[in-house]
Amino acid sequence: MKILGFIIQKEFKQIFRNKGMLPIIFIMPVVQLIILSNAATFDIKNIKFSYIDNDHTSLSRALIERFDASTYFNIVSDFPSEKMANAAMSQGDVDVILEIPHYFERDLQKEKHISLSVTINAIDGSAAGVENVYINQIIQNFNKNIKADLIQTEDKQSNPVNIITLPSFWYNKTLNYKTYMVPGILVLLVTMITLFLSGMNIVREKEIGTLEQINVTPIKKSQFIIGKLFPFWIIGLALLTIGLVIAKLIFNVPIVGSYLLLYVYTSVYILVILGIGLFISNFTETQQQAMFISWFFMVIFILMSGLFTPIDSMPKWAQTITDFNPIKYFVEVMRMVMLKGAQLQDILPQLLKTFLFAFIMNGLAVWNYKKTI
Amino acid sequence: MSEINYVIEATDLTKQFGDFKAVNAISFNVKKGEIFGFLGANGAGKTTAMKMLIGISNPTSGAANVAGFDVFTQAESIKKNIGYMSQKFALYDDLTVKENITFFGGIYGLSRATLKQKINALIEELGLHDIADNLVGALPLGWKQKLAFSVALLHNPKIVFLDEPTGGVDPITRRQFWEMIYKAAHEGTTIFVTTHYMDEAEYCDRVSIMVNGKIEALDTPKKLKEQFKVTSMNNVFLKLARG
Questions:
Q1: Out of B51, B57, B92, whose CB is closest to A210?
Q2: Which of A129, A221, A237, B90 is deepest in the core (most CB within 10 A)?
Q3: What pairs with residue B28 in β-bridges?
Q4: Whole-prediction pTM value?
């Protein structure tokens, strides 16, 4: 215990003395959290909308006004011909082309049935899908109003049956994208910083030759490793604290659940990451190697965490892999506790699995750490 | 063979990497309080042999006993009883003189009170008053090496292993360094030192010379010179190393 104290004291001194690392540890995550949470949004806005109006009637203009009124669409131009519109699309100047046919108003009143042509730039497939939904909604609303008008004027007897859906979004009432992203990005920052720091720390001592000096002392493996990793465990929890403060103060993310539960889970989680970092540093000789391997794992962990893409839509084999991804559980727990107010029994499966990972990773890392060369 | 006053006993100690025998069945004994010079050309196997003796490299075969403990089974007990100063400067550049002493003393299990005394005594002895709170990285190499040697002695080890401790150091500092070595030996610490400076070899009580993984000569500098009919250790070395 006494020896442990000496190591921890030394590590903290070195961390806080390193003027290059301090901002990376504490300032970079804050900046990232603020920037990423604002920028990494799935909301599709400012769609570049254009139209070809072959009808030029009050009804066709009314339809276009609908798009103009929507906050999702910016009307960038109207084209006299399809050819010009297509040219603009291939230049990337417009995202959507709506073509209103000749005799739109006349046919609609006469036949009550008409086709509109909509062209959508689908280079970003998911954005195109969302745009399609928006366009359909606007046209359907427009359609409903016309019908109502026609029914009123022509057939006063029939009672139109209107089915209205009133969605209610649980846990994120206003569908605020940041409420969803902030907890996830916070997870990434805690993970990245602790993984990189712990992965490179012991390798650094290998590089400068002090590890050999440590290895000729009677220090126990466990003392050295705990002493080395403890400071990063503290830093990880400090990052969580900073992140929660920002989430609350800047993003106004509702934190419904228990802070204690968040800290309990995170403290177990960081152990997993530190174990991985230590394991990496056992197998590498330079900080550069450690950095690349850490980065390799980070990318896989992030993309398969369900943070940016839902795990449910991944292929079966990929879903199986995500079961071994600690970040996935952390993301789940953060969202469950922060947004839903999940209790201990709700996150118990995640907590137990994370605990198991921590045990296995650190067991492997300590077993694998050799004081001999 | 096994007398109490031998603190290092090596018998047919061997380290093999693939087909290459870096250390080929070396046998020697080192007496308590002796300054034992461990010489050899670059790549002769000195550092490999030393790493086996300090318990950070497992021998392929043979036997060795250091400070009364077996290198195969009691490496951690050996580590309690030895000090080591590597070829590469291995104190922390980003810690101060005092912090380095505290850390290394601390991990050998010295108490904070003992450490305080030791730090004061050491600073006094090395004349480091003005720079005790300076970062070690900013010190001149000679001072660093003296500090590293003192740190290796902090826990009063029975044997100190020095791997080319004076490489790149000016002659005056080398002189001072050897005075420190003599002082430690006088107080009963056994010194096991590798060097490429043949004048330093003359200071040793006994010298072994390794060539291609084997010990080719082992005796006092005086007897070695007689044996090879030359006037200096330098010529002894040249004769042996050239084969």
A1: B92
A2: B90
A3: B10
A4: 0.81
